[in-house]
Amino acid sequence: MVPYAVMKTYWALGGTAGRPAGDLAAQFAANGAPAVVVWMERHGLDFTAVGALAGMMLLAALVTSWGTKVPRSALLVPGWAGAAMLTPYGLGTILAASFGFTVGDAEGWSPWVGVVGGLAFTGLGAALGVCSLAHQRRTRPGP
């Protein structure tokens, strides 16, 4: 997650390496993105970075004692869902970016952005799977 966080922070501070030229918020709006996503982009908040932060908070809840105070299913359902979605998505993104495949409008995006993002998604997904399994075993109701 560190390279991903560095990349997103660099962009939030005005960096442009790896990004297409122009106003991404306007592109999002033109493509029908939800208003909240457009608003976040206009204010320097990348919606994927906010999602990654939520995933890291979920990881913290899965491995710390305060997470045991939260209903078990409230952590395990998003934990397992995140693992099931993010791990293959990240692996697919790494492969696609490495071989030059794209989906949708990728004009102006550097392939390394896909690799960095894919590594972050794969790592977060795998961590969610491992931590969800550990939490599930640790909080299992039993005799």
Automatic annotation (TrEMBL):
Keywords: Membrane, Transmembrane, Transmembrane helix
Spans through the membrane: 47-68, 80-103, 109-134
Name used for this protein in its record: Uncharacterized protein
Organism (species): Nonomuraea muscovyensis
